[in-house]
Design brief:
The complex is a heterodimer. Chain A is an alpha+beta fold. Chain A folds into 5 domains: 27 residues; 104 residues, Cytochrome c-like domain (Cytochrome Bc1 Complex, Chain D, domain 2), CATH 1.10.760; 164 residues, no CATH class; 217 residues, Immunoglobulin-like; 30 residues. In chain A, 31% of the residues lie in helices and 15% in strands. In chain A, strands 1, 2, 3, 4, 5, 8, 9, 10, 11, 12, 13, 14, 15 and 16 form a 14-stranded mixed sheet that branches. The longest helix of chain A is centred in the middle third of the chain and has 26 residues. By secondary structure, chain B is mainly alpha-helical. Chain B is 53% helix and 3% strand. Chain B is built from 8 helices and 2 strands. In chain B, strands 1-2 form a two-stranded antiparallel sheet. In chain B, a hairpin with a 2-residue loop joins strand 1 and strand 2. In chain B, helix 1 runs antiparallel to helix 2 and helix 7 crosses helix 8. The two termini of chain B are 58 Å apart. The chains are: A alpha+beta, B mainly alpha.
Chain lengths: 577, 259
């Protein structure tokens, strides 16, 4: 009896193992399935989604025209963010996740905070009706089981691949999305698209976990110029063979190949062709022979491993969350420094650990408007001494654009920054500031910097958005602007007090001074009012801590000692009597 | 186990109340209390404790007994020494940190819901007295539902071409530009917004924007554009219809008190 049950157990375990082998785990990991498309889903879609994605799902809703990235056109079955392999449809769960989490850095909000889970599934079902290919599709999932854990070593390897595999062409040397081809990229539909600034993980459309990043490498971002990583490799060849093939191809174009070399080349080609057959079968869903499967797995393994290293490298680049804006605890505080203020490349700037972060958004108040700003923030640090103040500003811009005619409008565009202060600092919490875009009857004082003259900051005044005028009497201001690896740095130094008190802001320690920014990216068509702006923030020249703090506290401590002893003796005296 | 002395009890009450005011209210309940308010409450609590212990002579003596013992008794020497060192040190630390703290940014006061002007204008054309103007298309809701729907749909188009950048896809003030502005964009899903104002109020705020706010509402940093520069009169009324249709909240009508 006992023995028999033992046998039964053995058989069922074996059966289970067999079952798992027949139905690979990825199928189980596909997540939930959408319900059948329903009228409720359609109504919901038309209320919440159609204004961007269009009633027929073609990405042509009334809002679409002013949006970049454009709302997705669902009719072609191209989905950017998937857990599935290249050229595959997404799983239902993938579509659900995008609806639920939104796409950070685009105008797609996280509906998970607004709709119920059931409603979101109904949307998934309706969205799938826009593309026929979803019927009995079973997309292949990306295998994430061999994750390489995060380590310094892995990051170093990843960095090497980043440079060698051509990532730099679009994403730039250090990853700010400033590669040489960045200005010319378009998506499947011909709309402009910018490579991701990899330092801004909070803007990764499909999330910023290492797994998320890895899936983008393996699956590619459909409809965008971001390819699947697998396509950058010659499957079937080892790294050495692939390098040798490159070498031979170069030679073929140049001096030509010797007979032995031609034979060698043909051999390599043969290997490639054999693999193409396997890939074709994979594409068409033809079942692979065990032998072919082994071959494929062996060829993919090193690519997956490289992708994990690369994902670890990308992950190492920046913080996950957008820095907090420069208010409250994070307000910009100019630090007091004795002697000369640090110049542009001075190490002293590193003493300020965290630059203050000023978010920028599109100027959509006055025509012409900028609905899709490409500059999203300015960072600032500052020092001052008894007579001068120095700022170091930094902002990311994917392209350095010297004055040139814009492709569309023909207007002269160029990269520029304006730093804005009120001429008169408001005196109390109810005293109005000038209008945040270039003032109103209360004037603003501007430092205008343009890329064509990187060592000049021009003083301007404005009393309204189109009224900026250059001051006839320029105070001496030193400036230096540099563009490197997708980021501008601008150093500015002025005396705290100027002679032109009627038109210039005067800096004094301890006073909270309003500050705001306007930034132009020439390559994004920014000119005049079409630009990125910030609202008013404040900064302060942090007063030198008073020396009183070394005098009064010890005095207070001494007095309290005296009081305690006095109390003690008075209590004792009273007890004695 | 020894019974707690009256002094210890009072001390415990005081410390617990301070912790409650300082930490509990701020983190669990609502916004942190300003330090000045906390010290006012603590002053009152101290006063109450002193009144309580000093109403009877016996009780006051009982209250002071441990203090006197600690100060004078020979068998309390260790405790005395510790306190005599600790108290001056704490005073030193507190006064030093008080003198070294940095200036806080000034508070920004503003009138969240300013009073509208008496007359409603659109591009210098006087539409009428704010208190009397009604949405010219509101009556279609009863009279001609097809036409009403067309106006709401047009309002929807206007909203998603102009407003949702800040006020959000779901009209909840969480648009993708919202993080760049202070004060934050209005949240129309907040039950305190739409039901509390007449449609003419919305017409005024939309057509005149931030710059149209009255001097009494300064300092305004509102980034709300002057929409009469971009939209027609009809578009503004339509978008107001859309706001209420989408959220399900009805603006106040005249003669009806705010809830």
């Amino acid at each position: 009896m006992k023995k028999q049950s033992y046998n039964t157990m053995l058989i069922s375990v074996a059966g289970l193992i067999l079952l798992l082998a027949v139905f690979p785990i990825p199928v189980l990991a596909q997540g939930k399935q959408a319900p059948a498309a329903s009228e409720e889903g359609k109504v919901l879609y038309e209320d919440k989604c159609a204004h961007c994605h269009g009633v027929d799902g073609a990405g042509d809703g009334s809002a679409a025209e002013n949006l970049l990235p454009r709302p997705r056109d669902f009719t072609r079955g191209l989905y950017k963010i998937r857990s599935t392999e290249s050229a595959q449809l997404p799983t239902d769960q993938d579509i659900f996740d995008i609806i639920s989490n939104g796409m950070p850095g685009s105008s797609m909000p996280a509906w998970g905070e607004i709709l119920t889970e059931n409603e979101q599934w109904q949307l998934v079902a309706h969205i799938k009706t826009f593309y026929d290919g979803f019927e009995d599709a079973s997309p292949r999932l990306i295998d994430v089981s061999d994750k390489v854990p995060y380590s310094e070593e892995s990051v170093t390897k990843g960095k090497e691949f980043y440079t060698n595999l051509g990532c730099v062409d679009c994403h730039g040397v250090v990853g700010r999305g400033d590669g040489t081809s960045a200005p010319d990229l378009t998506d499947e539909w011909g709309f402009r698209t910018w490579p991701a600034n990899l330092w801004e993980q909070w803007n990764y459309r499909g999330g910023s976990t290492t797994e998320d990043i890895f899936k983008r490498f393996i699956g590619g971002i459909a409809g965008s110029p971001m390819p699947s990583f697998i396509s950058s490799f010659r499957l079937g060849l080892t790294d050495e063979e692939s390098a040798r093939m490159n070498e031979l191809e170069l030679k073929m174009d140049g001096e030509g190949l010797s007979e032995a070399e031609e034979e060698e080349y043909a051999g390599l080609e043969e290997k490639l062709f054999m693999f193409e057959d396997i890939m074709l079968n994979v594409e068409e869903g033809v079942e692979l022979t065990p032998e072919e499967q082994t071959k494929l797995d062996t060829a993919l393994k090193p690519i997956f491993e490289k992708s994990w290293h690369l994902a670890n490298y990308v992950k190492s680049l920046g913080p996950e969350e957008r820095p907090q804006a420069a208010v409250g605890d994070k307000v910009l505080r100019s630090q007091y420094r004795e002697g000369t203020l640090p110049g542009m490349n001075d190490e002293a700037w590193n003493e300020i650990k965290e630059a203050s972060y000023f978010p920028l958004v599109g100027q959509i108040v006055i025509d012409p408007r900028q609905f899709n700003p490409s500059i999203d923030s300015v960072m600032a640090k500052s020092f001052y001494n008894d007579s001068e103040i120095a700022f170091l500003f930094a902002w990311d811009d994917r392209t350095k654009t010297l004055p040139q005619a814009d492709d569309e409008t023909g207007e002269t565009v160029e990269d520029a920054l304006a730093i804005q202060f009120p001429v008169k600092i408001s005196e109390g919490p109810t005293d109005p500031k000038p209008y945040f875009i270039y003032g109103d009857r209360r004037p603003v004082y501007l430092w205008s910097w343009k890329v064509a003259e990187p060592s000049t900051v021009t003083e301007m005044n404005a009393k309204g958005i189109n009224t900026a005028t250059v001051q006839s009497d320029q105070s001496p201001i030193q400036a230096e602007g540099v563009y490197k690896d997708g980021q501008y740095q601008l150093w500015v130094k002025r005396s705290l007090i100027t002679e032109d008190k009627r038109n210039d802001v005067q800096f004094a320690p301890g006073v909270f001074i309003p500050i705001a920014f306007s930034a132009w990216d020439g390559a994004n068509g920014d000119v005049n009012t079409k630009r990125a702006i910030s609202t008013w923030y404040t900064f302060v020249l942090d007063p030198v801590p008073s020396n009183k703090r070394f005098v009064y506290p010890p005095l207070i401590a001494l007095i309290s000692v005296g009081l305690l002893f006095g109390l003690k003796s008075s209590v004792r005296r009273r007890q004695d009597t | 186990m020894q019974r707690l002395s009256l002094f210890t009890k009072c001390l415990i009450i005081f410390v617990v109340l301070w912790l409650f005011l300082r930490f509990f209210i701020g983190s669990v309940w609502s916004v942190p209390l300003p330090a000045s308010v906390i010290s006012m409450y603590l002053g009152l609590i101290l006063l109450a404790i002193l009144v309580h212990v000093s109403v009877e002579d016996d009780r006051f003596r009982e209250f002071l007994r441990p203090v006197k013992e600690t100060l004078a008794d020979d068998d309390r020497r260790t405790r005395r020494t510790v306190l005599f060192v600790l108290i001056p040190l704490v005073m030193l630390g507190l006064s030093f940190s008080r003198l070294s703290t940095k200036a806080d940014p000034p508070a920004v006061l503003r009138t969240a819901h300013p009073a509208p002007p008496t007359e409603l204008e659109y591009r210098d054309k006087v539409i009428g007295l704010t208190q009397e103007v009604e949405n010219p298309f509101r009556h279609l809701e009863k009279d001609d539902t097809e036409a009403f729907k067309a106006h709401v749909d047009n309002g929807r188009r206007v909203y998603y071409q102009n407003c949702f950048y800040c006020h959000g896809d779901d009209l909840d003030g969480e648009g993708h530009f919202a993080h760049g502005f202070n004060p934050p964009p209005a949240n129309f899903q907040d039950p305190g917004i739409i039901p509390n104002y007449q449609e003419s109020f919305f017409f005024w705020r939309i057509s005149k924007g931030g710059p149209g706010l009255p001097p009494a509402a300064t300092p305004w940093d509102s980034a709300m554009p002057v929409w009469e520069d971009h939209l027609t009169e009809e578009e503004i009324w339509d978008v107001i219809l859309f706001l209420s249709e989408y959220t399900g909240y009805r603006p106040r009508t005249f003669g009806e008190a705010a809830h």
